[in-house]
């Protein structure tokens, strides 16, 4: 595979052309232009302005990821004979990409214990089986897992059903990705989401991109970063790997950039995996040392300045260098560039949250931003770059083990019900309860719970202990082959742009979009809301406090959300007004925060030593350019020049030091598991001492170590041994 000097460019255009040719140019164009929010990432495209339009109304805004998701939904149906042809053992040999490209699910199927084949069944039988089981177990023995791709309406309705049924074991995929951002930000500003709007990125002159590769996973963000550079601003990238698209990116919709390329990073710093907390604290220390801290702002609008100042002063540069893996000179360079910024935005992804100290990483970013008054004004602030297109919405509408007091009270009041009060189990706790046979039934609204779990062998065993596991999906994934219970039922659902009624989604900028839905592409799948309402009626009956049949109307659900969730008042009637909106109380353009005294919080830490050294390497599991979360569309990772996924990437120095040979097969082992037969690749863009493998396959090696504050597993800090 030919090394690439830039991201985007003609490759992206060629890819779009090929996909359009395969799917049909007009068919794909119509699908991409329909008034539906983009199905992939939470940057937010589409909605009432039409597909491929961003929140600022700019067109065309489209990327490879959105095309991949759309083309996947344009696939033909899985044929009935498929289920007689392929046994579970054969499906287990399929790769994530092969499962995804089997086609669209169109009929309910069941896999009973002892059987080797899924069997198609009718909807009534499927819902009947699930309802019977739910009525036969105690609600506390069930859990309800949500993917961030489902609509606000489906999320709200299912969490309501689960709670009225009698459990708070309600959680979503963010526990395995950005939960640390929510917890960390809430401890800094009192609000768990971005403090800025999309427009603020047009007014900033300095962007930190920390622990992420948006060139692959949020490509449209590259346009904003290119414009920061064109305005003479800084883009400071902090990442253990030099990612091609973060060095140079050719924005296909910008002729100059397409022809000549656009430098993205003005400064690229490679800490060791797990070294962010020390690095960010080192930059903060230097900012204070050079007198660039906004003392008046800190005294007027923050709490904890004196403690932070004293703690930073107490840190030694030796400790900072040792625990970050970054030389003092580079840290000072970051501080100098930051000190000259008028408006800075700090953006991060899972390189920050996938650590046992993920919440502290977020708090350290908060410290650094507040030190120079970069939260609470236009053009500056904090931006967790979220994954799934509605992962934030799902959290906002109540999909969490513990509802905020206001939402809990309003939910009871609105539906005249008394709901369970004990705190429910988070995602990993549910898997551990299944393993201990304390959970008997699991219900997954979208996503791939098995695939996204750490310690894959443990996850497989735990899910195997369940008596019933229900999946609602559009296509097949590794969970349907490996995450199997005594009885496993897969229910086919409609994609967002096939919904018979409008639905809504929330972007990472707290902007709510209205998706019109559209014509179904296949007979068989049902809307998520329809399935949930029918099941709730079957389990709880129609005589109760909630008329579940009427709750099939997404407009009715929105009326309830508008009454129950603060900031969502404008959701009621959005399908009539077509007015998409910014959620109130989340964007901080003034230094008055959502804390009890309106002051932001500063934090101090105990810096962790870097794990590993010697024969032990620090491994991070990553997404490739050909996938989105656990969904793999292409095996190739063009930017890292890898044509396959069964690889481990090490720096040539480590390969020599460990007496290994590039392009040979090695065994990779950790405290959680072992992967033999992995292809060793030399990769000089990663820092020596660190290693890279692809998620979700490498989850075999990821132990269940979690950040105690967010319960997010440390997918990006795994100690491994690599042997010939
Ligand atoms: S950047 Fe994200 S929201 Fe925008 S088109 Fe791509 S996947 Fe969709």
In short:
This protein is of the alpha/beta class. The chain folds into four domains: 7-73, no CATH class; 87-176 and 391-497 and 525-571, 3-Layer(aba) Sandwich (Rossmann fold), CATH 3.40.50.740; 179-385, 3-Layer(aba) Sandwich (Dimethylsulfoxide Reductase, domain 2); 616-723, Beta Barrel (Barwin-like endoglucanases). The protein is 35% helix and 16% strand.
Strand content: 15-25%
Looking at the structure, the CATH topology of the largest domain is Rossmann fold
How far is the first residue's CA from the last residue's CA? Answer: 25 Å
Overall average residue pLDDT: 96
CATH class identity of the largest domain: Alpha Beta
Structural class: alpha/beta
| Rough outline | globular
Number of helices: 29
Helix content: 25-40%
How many structural units, i.e. domains?
A: 4
- Biggest β-sheet description: 7 strands, mixed
State Rg: 24 Å
Identify every distinct bound molecule in the structure, by name, code or SMILES: iron/sulfur cluster
